[in-house]
């Protein structure tokens, strides 16, 4: 059976304590430039893990991924006329008057 997981984005002050985050879940990605870690934890342990991680002194902020909450069934949206309806764009060529360029020879 596949275990449901949730992504946590952990913003840290320093990446030196990266090993301490391994005990909370699977580390998927580490950004050394922006100093954040993408961590996957089990769905039922999200709130308990979130509280524990927030208490760590090297953690700045923790964001929870909303990816599992988004409905990914787009079948109803694709078949509708509203999805393929094009908006009428104004014709800019008729609105803008381009001045005629006269050369000095023709004056």
Automatic annotation (TrEMBL):
Keyword Cell membrane listed: no
Cytoplasm in keyword set: yes
Coiled coil (UniProt feature): none
GO CC entries: cytoplasm
Record key words, sorted: Cytoplasm
Pfam families reported for this sequence: DUF2129 (PF09902)
InterPro entries assigned to the protein according to its UniProt record, in alphabetical order: DUF2129 (IPR016979)
Annotated localization: Cytoplasm
Main localization of the protein described in the UniProt heading: cytoplasm
Family: Belongs to the UPF0298 family.
Protein name: UPF0298 protein RU93_GL000156
Species for this entry: Enterococcus aquimarinus
């Amino acid at each position: 059976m596949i275990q449901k997981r949730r992504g946590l984005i952990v913003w840290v002050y320093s990446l030196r304590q990266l090993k301490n985050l391994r005990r909370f879940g699977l580390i998927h990605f580490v950004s050394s430039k922006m100093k954040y870690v993408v961590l996957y934890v089990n769905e039922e342990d999200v709130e308990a893990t979130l509280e524990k991680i927030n208490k760590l002194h090297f953690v700045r902020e923790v964001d929870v991924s909303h990816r599992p909450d988004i409905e990914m069934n787009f079948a109803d949206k694709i078949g509708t006329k509203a999805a393929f309806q094009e908006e009428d764009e104004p014709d800019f060529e008729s609105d803008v008057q381009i001045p005629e360029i006269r050369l000095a020879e023709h004056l």
